[in-house]
Amino acid sequence: MTAPVRTTGVRPADPPATAPDPHIAAGPPGGTAATATDTGTRPARLRELGPNWYAAVMGTAVVATAGTTLPEHPPHAALAGVWALAAVALVVLLAARAGHWLRHRDRAREQLLDPAVAPFQGCLAMALLAVGGGATALKVPGAVAIGAALWAAGTAVGLVAAVGVPYLMIARHDVAPGSASPVWLLPVVAPMVSAALGPPLTAHLPAGPPGQVLLLGCFALFGMSLLATLLILPLVLSRLIHHGPLPLPMTPTLFLVLGPLGQSTTALGNLADAAPGDFASLSVLYGVPVLGFALLWLALSAALVGRAARRGMGFSLTWWAFTFPVGTCVTGAAAVWRHTGAAAFGWLAVVLYVLLVAAWATAAARTVAGLFSGALLAPRRLAPAEPVPTRARTR
Question: What Rg, from alpha-carbon coordinates, does the chain have?
Fold first, then answer.
């Protein structure tokens, strides 16, 4: 295989803001048009409903969960109301996605075989886990049963996604060189969410081996997700450096990198809560530098989002990337605050929570408006995919 030829010149211009966004409603692989009707008579309202919609559940649930970790909690009733909204949205989406598989199986299969959409299969697991973890944190009626059931279901689905999506990428997808994207993290970060939300359940298990097995299992899930993340992050950074900024509608997905950073810090903090003698020191030694890197990436991502906004970036479902990843940094900073007593981390958690609530309110309002207008579920005619441009070095 010959090496690619590097040309001289300047970086190609950003794709237009109206470029197809595969994370809103991706068409079939190869850029063919999505049909507007099903069986020729019935409008295909759910045909373009993809797994990316679960991100709205994740982003809503984390507002409730993260609020319980702050030095000063928002009113419990308000947090419980947000959690209830997430729970209802989860039930509705589960039913809608089941209908999608029954009525539009061809489209669902296309989504699995589309490398731009398949990674979002991990969002189902994280939606289940986020709602279950919120129930446990808020102590809603039936919290233990809800939390345990959704943790078990979310962990099982997450493990399938963590193996299945990379398998499809290797064996079935046609992945272009230089096309690495932050969304590749979604399936492999799901086990980290399980690792973070499993330790609180040990308080409801008999003392001895059951709790120990759960904690060790969560630590194994932590390692599984962390090592997979460390393999993917260099690919994402390499893509950005060698090929330039992401297309405008995709730019918010840069915030997804914050997910494994904040969630891994949260996981070790929760493990330390359950077993201080085993994990307390590790949670601090790991959490402080990782949160430092998270702040660095947050600043870089915010700068690139600002750049995209100046170039006409419009709303898409990728804006939900501003919510759940930031929420994990809130819980991560709060975990370090709990185990060090350092007020700076408590204030960091509060500031990030304000950012989270603002992002959630914006994304939720725009999503509701898009649903009422029908724009977010409208069939989209996509142009043929273009190769990833290679940025040339200037002399």
Answer: 21
The answer to whether 232 touches 188, Cβ cutoff 8 Å, is yes
Q: How far is CA 230 from the centre of its chain?
A: 16
23, 48 Cβ separation under 8 angstroms: no
Do residues 97 and 158 make contact, with C-beta atoms less than 8 angstroms apart?
A: no
Residue ranges of E strands in 137-291: none
CB count in 10 Å sphere of residue 150: 23
Rounded to whole angstroms, how far apart are CA atoms 25 and 152?
29
Name 175's Cβ contacts closer than 8 Å, sequence gap at least 6: 115, 169
Question: Residue-wise over 334-362: b if at least 16 C-beta within 10 A, else e?
Answer: bbbbbbbeeeebbebbbebbebbbebbee
The one-letter code for the residue type at 189 is: V
Asked whether 256 and 249 are in contact (CB, 8 A), the reply is: no
pLDDT tens digits, one per residue of 281-297: 999 999 999 999 999 99
pLDDT tens, residue by residue, 163-216: 999 999 999 999 998 899 999 999 999 999 999 999 999 999 998 899 999 999
Give the burial class of 312: count Cβ atoms within 10 A of its Cβ; 0-12 exposed, 13-18 middle, 19 or more buried: exposed
Q: What angle do CA 221, 225, 231 make, to 5 degrees?
A: 150
